[in-house]
Amino acid sequence: MAGFRLLVVALAVACGMAPEFSGGQERAATYTTTLQPLIEAHCLDCHGPDSQKAGLRLDTLSTELSDAAALNRWVKVHDRLAAGDMPPAKRERPPVAMVEASVKSLHQSLHHASLKRQETQGRVLIRRLNATEYENTVRELVGTEVALKEIFPEENAAAGFDNVSAALDLSSTHLLLYQEAAEKAIASVIPKHPPLPLKERRTGREMSERGSNFRQTLTRSCKLEGDSLVIYSKLPRYGLACTPNVQGAGNYRIRLSAAAVGAAGTPVAAAYAVVGRGQEPPEVREMADFQPGKSQVIEKEVYLEAGEAFVVNLMANWDIRATKQPIEAYDGPGIRIDWMEIEGPIGSFPADSY
What we know:
By secondary structure, the chain is α+β, with helices and mostly antiparallel strands. It is built from 11 helices and 10 strands.
């Protein structure tokens, strides 16, 4: 069997595989004297004709490093060798000098192939913007916080990222959706009429009276202290501590009086979010720490689409009944909201982007 393996590798070298692999006669000779003996002696039992663990067969693996699939395979071989993962610990270990020489030879070949690819293709392939990048770019261009990324289909991911050239395809569907997004962006800066001004303050008690079925959460997630609303757990979609829904898109000034409670003098994290009239859950925009002690007045400026409301909520999702005590007796961490106010749209009309 060893003679057969030697014949396979020898034929590969004789047919020109090593020069293609190494990128030159000098490196070809280095390959023959370093990496080839290591593969013959320590790799083909698991990655040869009789066994292909992890789907890898080295004696037939293409050495054309211009082939992206082959290049990626050899990169993985290099990384496993360099990390000492291969050959596995239960197998006979090759001499350290042999491994180091093989890794060096393979690294040189891969580096040479990378430079060749950069000469013809550049460092990265030209790609389109993903949906998030497109939305941010258009927002900078037109000067509004128009929401566009939900118009497009979900992006393909490569290695966990959605901005890799190889995964970002471009179809006729995308072209049609770009037109739709452009129309929405333009409409956001050409309003049909001045938005109706809104200024309203709600106490915590008033907020608890607005949401349908809010009474259920007053025994599970929150309680009232005078006119203040104390929240201990994430409030559900049907009863939220929120402003009224706005009639027109624009920037709105939010002011609220709030503090952390029952946290032994430490801040309590909560979410600033927006929610529409539909059934979608609130979209978290930002996390903030609420400070313990006396209530503080917090002021923010947020962009809201028509029909959206501003929400303050906790992210921990649990039921006070799990503590087997009435909510009036519970003294764990939470936030107290005395009142919340919304005013806007603020700024000139039409907006500067018009």
